[in-house]
Specification:
A: alpha+beta; OB fold (Dihydrolipoamide Acetyltransferase, E2P); five-stranded antiparallel beta sheet; B: MetI-like fold
């Protein structure tokens, strides 16, 4: 029982072109910026959107293969979908919402099955309520129960926590993790929050502009980002360039790293490794240049200083250092970091 | 009050109720699918169909009656077949009144229901499909209940239009007491002979219209 998908799909300005596989019991997070095609990918897997090229295969059954004229419509796929805004049926009771899939699939005693599911998500007291009377977190649990009740092989969750406030999010995330761990099918979870991805999913697939740019466990992905999006998410400086014996050429500028690296590479520098001076620094750092401190962002005990120069970067300095420098933004500064602080890996 | 109990008044009232309610029922049965087709499907000639369905709203009712005669009259395009093959004669019959009233009233239903279909959240239908609901299940369990307020409002509008129908009815169905003489027709005739009776019947029509308007305001403008 596996999901195998090769998806080629054009929709307006979006061009989706990626492959993914997932094994039963797996929870795969699709992480990416808005407009990357994550929701469209889910819709294609659910059968709400036809693909132009490729194939979608679940449990050995071909669901969509334009080349072979095959398309299984949404209502015939064993797929549960939890929509971002839940899409609970406003005219049906909570119980009837959960029973809806069981009825459609012709299962015996849908009310009994739906009642069991409401108990599992702890909402049996709301069985006869209308969805309009539920809080955001409760609505999410009903949507999850409704999607899981017909026992689908593939569960799709589109930004399941995005509509919730911060305090609700914590408990809903914990409950969701519990239910997902009991689900023996495949789970695909769309999110743009790395915290949700880390908490809920074993594997993360980073999607940008319709393409998969990086896959793996979240710690691996954040340790060695392969795109600006992930770098910004983690808050590190990332460049891509050609390395010649440890010197990485980035546009007109270059960064000196440890010797030995060659070819098309990523160069990563943590903002904490970058020092900021008002005067040209003396001493050993190999990477020194001038720039303009354009913006200051306060963190808990540190400040992130964005410096525009030959190579734009972000430095993280302590509040004390900021006070010594007397920066308010707009000043000319010098930045430096050691060659040994540059992490270089092949692109 | 005595005027209301006069036999011809009662006959006109009964006929008006029977015909306008029948016309409303037919308008709902035919109009909801028509509205669905116009809101949800894309096909060539769609604009022409939309123009045709709304035409009776702007057409002078008398011209509508003439058009009905040309189509359904004894020697009309369709009427000749209806009479020759089935022996059905629509003009100057109660069925003709219902046809005329349906003709002028149905556009109100189609337009209201089409607006309802366009404004409803179609993704709810998608959600139903991911739960295994086939086309008809989606329609009857999701779409129809969600547009019920629009159908109700459209039916009320159609009914009040049918109740007040005059021009197309008198042209196509004539003015035979007990058979085709509805309230508006009776009022028109009574004005010549017994004005007080005409006043009373008019008052009844005015009251019905008022009740409809008030009911619709509550129902339509405050859906909660």
């Amino acid at each position: 029982m596996t999901l195998r998908a090769e998806i080629g799909l054009g929709l307006g300005s979006l061009q989706l072109d990626l492959e993914l596989t997932a094994a039963p019991g797996a929870v795969l997070a699709l992480l990416g910026p808005n407009g990357a095609g994550k929701t469209t990918l889910l819709r294609a897997l659910a059968g709400l959107q036809r693909i132009d090229e490729g194939r979608i295969e679940l449990d050995g059954a071909l669901l969509d293969a334009p080349g072979r004229g095959r398309f299984v419509p949404a209502e015939e796929r064993s797929v549960g979908f939890v929509f971002q805004d839940y899409l609970l049926f406003p005219h049906l009771s909570v119980l009837e919402n959960v029973a809806f899939g069981l009825r459609s699939r012709g299962q015996d005693d849908p009310i009994l099955g739906a009642t069991e599911w409401l108990q599992r998500v702890g909402l049996e007291a709301y069985a006869s309520a209308r969805p309009g009377h539920l809080s955001g977190g409760q609505g999410q649990r009903v949507a999850l129960a409704r999607a899981l009740a017909p026992n689908p092989r593939l569960l799709l969750l589109d930004e399941p926590l995005a509509a919730l406030d911060a305090s609700t999010k914590v408990t809903v995330r914990r409950d969701l993790k519990k239910h997902l761990s009991q689900f023996d099918g495949i789970t695909l979870l769309v999110t743009h929050d790395p915290v949700d991805a880390a908490a809920l999913a074993g594997t993360v697939l980073v999607i940008e502009e319709g393409r998969a740019v990086q896959a793996g466990a979240l710690p691996e992905i954040t340790a060695r980002p392969r795109s600006r999006y992930v770098a910004d998410l983690v808050g590190v400086n990332l460049w891509r360039g050609m390395a010649v014996d440890g010197v990485v050429q980035i546009g007109a500028a270059s960064i000196t790293a440890a010797a030995g690296h060659q070819g098309d590479v990523f160069a990563l520098v943590h903002p904490r490794s970058v020092s900021v001076y008002l005067e040209r620094p003396h001493g050993s750092p190999r990477n020194v240049w001038r720039g303009v401190a354009t913006s200051l962002d306060a963190l808990a005990d540190r400040v992130r200083v964005r410096v525009e120069g030959p190579v734009p970067l972000v430095a993280e300095i302590t509040n004390a250092a900021l006070a010594d420098l007397g920066l308010v933004g707009g000043e000319e500064v010098w930045v430096s970091f050691k060659a040994s602080e540059v992490d270089v890996y092949p692109a | 009050m005595a005027e209301l109990q006069a036999p011809e008044s009662i006959a006109a009232l009964r006929l008006s109720l029977v015909c306008s309610l029948s016309a409303t029922l037919i308008a709902v049965v035919l109009g909801v699918p028509l509205a669905w087709v116009q809101a949800r499907m894309r096909f060539p000639g769609q604009n022409l169909l939309r123009a045709l369905t709304t035409l009776p709203m702007v057409l002078p009712p008398v011209a509508g009656g003439v058009a009905l005669l040309l189509a359904f009259g004894r020697r009309g395009l369709i009427g000749s077949y209806l009479f020759d093959l089935l022996g059905i004669r629509l003009p100057f019959s109660t069925a003709g009144v219902i046809l005329a009233e349906t003709f002028v009233a149905m556009p109100f239903l189609v337009i209201t229901v089409e607006a309802g279909l366009r404004s409803m959240n179609r993704r709810l239908e998608e959600a139903a499909r991911t739960l295994g609901a086939r086309r008809w299940t989606v329609f009857f369990r999701i779409t129809l209940p969600l547009i019920a307020p629009s159908i109700f409002a459209g039916a009320i509008l159609s009914w009040s239009r049918a109740l007040g129908e005059f021009g197309a009815t008198i042209t196509f169905a004539g003015n035979f007491p007990g058979q085709t003489q509805t309230m508006p027709l009776a009022v028109y005739l009574l004005l010549e002979t017994r004005p007080e009776a005409a006043y009373v019947l008019s008052l009844v029509l005015v009251l019905v219209s008022l009740v409809v308007l008030v009911a619709l305001r509550d129902r339509y403008l405050n859906p909660s």
